Amino acid sequence: MVAQLSPANHQELDQDRQFQRVAVTLFGRYMLENRNEFPCQIQDMSPGSASVISPMSGDIGEKVIAYIDHIGRLEGKIIRIFSGGFAMSVSATEKKRDKMAAKLTWLANRHELNLAEDRRHERLVPNVKTSQIKLEDGRSYNVKIIDLSLSGAAIEIDVRPAIGTLLWLGAMRGRVVRHFDEGIAIEFAILQSRDTLNLFLGNGF
Description:
- The protein is built from three helices and twelve strands, in the order αββββββαββββββα.
- The chain is of the alpha+beta class and 205 residues long.
- It has two domains: 7-112, predicted glycosyltransferase like domains (Thrombin, subunit H, Beta Barrel), CATH 2.40.10.220; 117-200, Thrombin, subunit H, CATH 2.40.10.220.
- A hairpin with a 3-residue loop joins strand 2 and strand 3.
């Protein structure tokens, strides 16, 4: 499918060229003007725009609101449509753009250098090890928690959901970031607190 570009959006595209896009794999949800909501994946992004893999696109110029893991709320307009998704502008203050640039740089370098976020946090072995994960399509599996940190978990499981798969461990949303012999590693969408983990596991540390 040939990319579509509206002349009215040239100014927004020119503005985005001030920023360097970085390749990332981030998941979230977005809402179109008709208030329909869909899951999405960001494949590259700058503080001025984002390339969104999505099941449904709106029209060029249509307003989009997205909530993206690690980034937060994004608001902008569709500036280009391509097969399997769309590009959107990102409306933000200069201060927010600076913060976004720093975050994107860290995310890109983390994956390039194989720096898992949860290496910065103490890994804990819970007393209560049995739990359940639920995938976005509704499938659920009983699992054994090998260890847990504020930013992720290693779980023992017989199946191997693909890397990048969205899932829930209890009420904690995350995605698969690694496979290993016994199971999978999960990175949480939001950094948890010790109290959250204790509540989730019934004070099981």
